[in-house]
Amino acid sequence: FLSLIPPPTYNKVHESSISCHHLATEFPSEDILLVTASPVIKAVTNFKQVSKTLEEFDVEEQPSTMLEKRYPNIKVIESGVKQLKSQEHKIFTEDGKQCIYEKLCLCAGAKPKLIFEENPYVLGIRDTDSAQAFQNHLAKAERIAVVGNGGIALELVYEIEGCEVLWAIKDKAIGNTFFDAGAAEFLIPKLTAEKLETAIACKRTKYTTEGCEKEEGSVAAADKLGTALGPDWHEGLHLKGTKEFSHKVHIETLCEIKKIYLQQEFKQLQKTSLSFPKDSSDNQNLWPVYMELTNGKIYGCDFIVSATGVVPNVKPFLDGNNFTLGEDGGLKVDKHMHSSVADIYAAGDICTASWEPSPVWQQMRLWTQARQMGWYAAKCMVADFLGESIDMDFSFELFAHVTKFFNYKVVLLGKYNAQGLDLDHELMLRCTKGQEYVKVVMQNGRMMGAVLIGETDLEETFENLILNQMDLSAYGEDLLNPNVDIEDYFD
Ligand SMILES: Cc1cc2nc3c(=O)[nH]c(=O)nc-3n(C[C@H](O)[C@H](O)[C@H](O)COP(=O)(O)OP(=O)(O)OC[C@H]3O[C@@H](n4cnc5c(N)ncnc54)[C@H](O)[C@@H]3O)c2cc1C
Ligand SMILES: NC(=O)c1ccc[n+]([C@@H]2O[C@H](COP(=O)([O-])OP(=O)(O)OC[C@H]3O[C@@H](n4cnc5c(N)ncnc54)[C@H](O)[C@@H]3O)[C@@H](O)[C@H]2O)c1
């Protein structure tokens, strides 16, 4: 970027409005080009720095032209990039444009990693269109299946009303990407209880939606990649099936889907093979689709949601370019968010952090990290251009995520699930049923991570304890004693 070449050759930054804000401010007289396949950008609003590393904010979708209005040196091209020629420093867009860049930041996100992707009764949720398609199909459904045990599945099983949910998970306990079995146990009663909390009415539309269906009868959304949803994505959606009850969730643990049958196939197999199993539930209706699980059970349902993680969206950029990819398929970036290809940076879901991380930070594909990486990548681009050195941003010192599951505030800090720690670590727990669940991960007397569910008010103190690695051996179990005002000890 910072080109001295006149238009139509632009300085450019690909996607990430966050990087753009920073670049546009740093270089007000230069052209910054934002190339995006989506007509909307995500804007962070109501940003609140909760503590040193914890941040809370809303994500709103706004027309991308808003950026142009606010920053006259940003130009938005609303078209997907179909090819990158890194040697020539050129990108080619679907609408036939080509642009030369001096420095480029790739922020094209990730795609849902769907199981049985080709099956028209399997759908994923990533952007506003796929969420809208999901809502439309749910409105006609009596029973759906949810496969996966991470963020989306946790949110769905709690939010869906008036529809039976068959939840198939590979693990013993729910929520494996965020919780251990103890926290899962704490949360489970919320799934069986009638939902007393009424959702607070959405004061504004955060996500704009337009319906999109692939073909008659099938449920999958059209294959175009919009901007990923963020916190509270289900606010403003009506996640209700055809029935009048609140929750009805049946969990099948330790299993995966082995095979999917369409109704005709299932009927045929029932007719021709006497030993072919019947629907394992009480409800023997004929369903549009059936899933056979690895535990031998078969369940019919209206459709299946595959909430089975994401894969970095690198495909449009690989051909002819020598990117080094991480094990998870993302573009490897160093501590300056620089990829393995000259003048190309990457941030957010598309990248794989490949620097030596702080002992209490790990990458997770989250909005929080996408925001921090976008901001930091822009700072690195500026520093590179000016020939200045730059230190790693403080936000990468400690993994910190605040979210909400089952209407509880959830704070995750550091190695909250003892990820990658040796076996000599210990766990300390405090739990009050229906109110709070506190878990800390200790190693050699030092706090390495924490899970805080409910209004514990402990996040700031624990964040400090993890960051300063103070030896806490002397405090023993008092660390979690509710009668000891732990904040007074350490603040
Ligand atoms: C349902 C759901 C709920 C979530 N909830 C939370 C949450 O509560 N908290 C949290 O922290 N995280 C949450 N996440 C994760 C979070 O949304 C992502 O980690 C974050 O959006 C990643 O940001 P990104 O900018 O890297 O990618 P994205 O937000 O996916 O943006 C990528 C952009 O690139 C564009 N693009 C793609 N390909 C091209 C191309 N070839 N040319 C041009 N443009 C292209 C897309 O249109 C899009 O605008 C959720 C995700 C989902 C799917
Ligand atoms: N509140 C939040 O912070 C929040 C909410 C929703 C989504 N997100 C983020 O959005 C992204 C997408 O969410 P997600 O829930 O799809 O991903 P995820 O990574 O959170 O969870 C994926 C789940 O799918 C399971 N899985 C993978 N392959 C499977 C298979 N073949 N069969 C059965 N299960 C399989 C994994 O064990 C894991 O439980 C993630 O990056 C997630 O962190 C975050």
Automatic annotation (TrEMBL):
Keywords: FAD, Flavoprotein, Oxidoreductase. SUPFAM superfamilies: FAD/NAD(P)-binding domain. Residues 42-230, 289-374 form the FAD/NAD(P)-binding domain. Residues 404-469 form the NADH-rubredoxin oxidoreductase C-terminal domain. PANTHER family: PYRIDINE NUCLEOTIDE-DISULFIDE OXIDOREDUCTASE DOMAIN-CONTAINING, PYRIDINE NUCLEOTIDE-DISULFIDE OXIDOREDUCTASE DOMAIN-CONTAINING PROTEIN 1. Probable FAD-dependent oxidoreductase; involved in the cellular oxidative stress response. Required for normal sarcomere structure and muscle fiber integrity. The gene is PYROXD1. This is Pyridine nucleotide-disulfide oxidoreductase domain-containing protein 1. InterPro entries: FAD-bd_OxRdtase, FAD/NAD-bd_sf, FAD/NAD-binding_dom, FAD/NAD-linked_Rdtase_dimer_sf, Rubredoxin_C. Belongs to the class-I pyridine nucleotide-disulfide oxidoreductase family. PYROXD1 subfamily. Its cofactor is FAD. One of its GO terms (molecular function) is oxidoreductase activity.
